[in-house]
Amino acid sequence: MLTPDMALSHDESYIEYIKMYAQDRELFDADFAKAWYALTSADMGPATRCIGDMVPPPQPFQHTLPDSPETLPDYVPVAEAIEDYMEDDSEDMKMFIQLALNCASTFRATDYRGGCNGAKIRFSPESEWESNAAVVDYISYLEQIKSDGGFDDVSMADMIVLAGNIALEKSNPDLDLDFCGGYVDAEDGSGSDVLAPRSYSPAIITVTDDWAVKGLTPEQGVALFSSTSLGSQYYIDLLAADYISSYHGTSEYSPEELALIEDEDLKKIVQTFADDETALLEAFASGWTYLMTADRFTNNRDNACAGVSTTYKAGDDDFPQDDVFEPVRLMWQ
User: Fold this and answer.
1) Could you give the CA distance from residue 323 to residue 307 in angstroms, rounded to a whole number?
2) Which segments of 117-231 does DSSP mark as H helices, in order?
3) Do 90 and 225 fall into the same domain?
4) Residue 324: inside a domain, yes or no?
5) At 313, which CATH number?
6) Number of domains, the chain
């Protein structure tokens, strides 16, 4: 046997397992099967992504969410209540945008974990992360809107993503974002402990690793940097900061933001967005919608929100409500 094998028999906690399995082969076989299944399928994400007639019921390690409702709630009064709360408060709108982005930014395309579906940002450990300190209060604001409006059939995940979309469109009249209703709520924050933001040195590694893990393109990633101040001016100012920092050695931008202009290829994207706001808005809408819906699984090939294209404006009586996977776009002026 190997040294690690022998070490188990000299450890007070593991020796009990050795004795237990030595005396009960059936128990060992059952536990081994569970462990093997976890080892070989943990990177598949929730159980809904597993297909075939040999798939067992959802296991704890998969953190599978409840099924989406068979019938969508009426989002019209929900959206109107959220919009009324925001009014024209730019600070509120920024916080709702950041809340939705932080909620969705835990998604990992590498193992299909995380994302805003489930709204686990409401629970520990996500609610205690430093990166969420400024936005957690806005969860309670949405909970109050939900309670006051009697929106019992609307999930908090729906509320968070919808509020982010509305805030962005109110702040940017030229921006059209898709909203695919049917998000659900998790019962706790289990599974989030490994999803905390990661930081590396130099900062460019933090940036590019984050995009790679999420499955974002460089254009989408650069565009999402300006979420709370969306527009070409953000990139014009960022380019100006490059010159300021080169002469004075100081900058008001984070190391990750400065990495966008220190890397030659990313700086070209920054320059494009500084010159062409239409290109920026297209990349932003693409990246935002991808991130908000990336964890809406139907199986290991399809996404519940694929092909979102339905357009809705306030006062439209043809708002679709009868299909959980019917895509819905809320556009507010």
Assistant:
1) 14
2) 136-149, 156-171, 203-214, 218-224
3) no
4) yes
5) 1.10.520.10
6) 2
Q: Is residue 25 part of a domain?
A: no
- Tell me the per-residue pLDDT of 88-135, one tens digit each, with 9 for 90 and over: 889 999 999 999 999 999 999 999 999 999 999 999 999 999 999 999
Measured from the Cβ of residue 184, the count of other Cβ atoms closer than 10 Å reads: 17
Residue 157 has pLDDT above 90, yes or no: yes
298 with 183, same domain: the answer is yes
Q: What phi and psi values does residue 125 have, to the nearest 5 degrees?
A: -90, -15
Domain containing residue 248 = 203-279
| Pick from 116, 72, 110: nearest CA to 97 | 116
217 with 305, same domain? Answer: no
Q: Token digits for 154?
A: 């609307």
- Output DSSP code: residue 38: H
- Local structure of residue 76 (DSSP, 8 states): H
H helix or E strand, kind and range, residue 96: helix 90-104
Residues 177 and 295 occupy one common structural domain: yes
Q: Which two three-digit tokens encode residue 176?
A: 């059209």
Q: How far apart are CA 158 and CA 57, in angstroms?
A: 26
Q: Report residue 153 CA to chain centroid gap.
A: 22
- pLDDT, residue 245, reads 54
If we measure between CA atoms, which residue out of 311, 66, 266 comes closest to residue 183? 66
Please tell me whether residues 178 and 313 are part of one structural domain.
yes
Question: Could you report the per-residue pLDDT of 256-315, keeping only the tens digit for each?
Answer: 999 999 999 999 999 999 999 999 999 999 999 999 999 999 888 889 998 764 433 333
Q: Do residue 213 and residue 128 come from a single domain?
A: no
In tens, the pLDDT along 179-236 reads 999 999 999 999 999 999 999 999 999 999 999 999 999 999 999 999 999 999 999 9
Residue 165 covered by a domain: yes
304 and 271 in a common domain: no
In this predicted model, what pLDDT tens digit does every residue of 31-43 receive, in sequence order? Answer: 999 999 999 999 9
313 closest CA partner among 169, 134, 136: 169
Q: Are residues 186 and 217 in the same domain?
A: no
Q: Please give the Cα distance from 188 to 119 (Å, whole number).
A: 9
